Structures are given as structure tokens and as C-alpha cells.
């Protein structure tokens, strides 16, 4: 199975996300809901090994098998990683500046 790559657009918690810029390890997303717009700059997380998410039981008592994520798959930073791997901005220019800062660090690694 091929590694999972971050989507260029997706919906989460009723917000629409659209990728504006992307490098190997850094991305800039526009986050929108109605007329509201904000921006998120992330360091893309990549899994080092295969991971099988645990199964769970839904509200009807039915077991739902956990998803499988192959090594090398990309992920958006978790809430716990925010401030280290993810940054929120209300202004696109400020978000773009952070993207360039992270891109510069990425290129020097």
C-alpha cells in the first residue's frame, strides 16, 4: 500500500481547508467557513513506520476496524502539536511569511 499524502482540500469540523502552497515538509492552507477566512501553516508530519489504528465500537454496538496508515504517510499536526508544528493566522501575508520562514529552515536541514 502506498503512503497517504495530505489532501489538497478537505473538510473538518465544518471548516473547508484548501492547500495554497506546498513543499516537501511545509504547507499553507486556507481555512474557511462561510465568509470567514483564516490560514494555517504546518510542518507536515510523516510516519516512520506502519500504524494500525485500534478498532472501536460505534453507538449501535458495531465494531469498526481501525484504519491502516503505511510508513511514509503524511498527516496534519494534532492539536497537541500546535505551536510547534502548526500555526494559525488571520492574515494571509503573515501566514505566507511564516511559510517562507519554515521553508527556509527546511531547505537548510
Entry summary:
With 109 residues, this protein is of the alpha+beta class. The protein has one helix at 92-108, and strands at 9-12, 15-22, 26-33, 36-43, 45-46, 51-52, 56-57, 63-64, 68-69, 74-75, 86-89.
Helix-strand layout with pairing:
Layout: E1 9-12, E2 15-22, E3 26-33, E4 36-43, E5 45-46, E6 51-52, E7 56-57, E8 63-64, E9 68-69, E10 74-75, E11 86-89, H1 92-108
Please tell me about this protein's structure:
- By secondary structure, the protein is α+β, with helices and mostly antiparallel strands.
- It has one helix spanning 92-108; strands spanning 9-12, 15-22, 26-33, 36-43, 45-46, 51-52, 56-57, 63-64, 68-69, 74-75, 86-89.
Separation, N- and C-terminal Cα atoms: 29 Å
Give start-end ranges of low-pLDDT stretches: none
Q: Can you count the helices?
A: 1
Give the rounded overall mean pLDDT: 92
Number of strands: 11
Global structural class: alpha+beta
Radius of gyration (Å): 16 Å
How do the helices and strands follow one another from N- to C-terminus? EEEEEEEEEEEH
| Number of discrete domains | 1
Strand content: 35-45%
Helix content: 10-25%
| Net shape | globular
Please give the largest β-sheet: 5 strands, antiparallel
Widest sheet, order of strands: 1-2-3-4-11
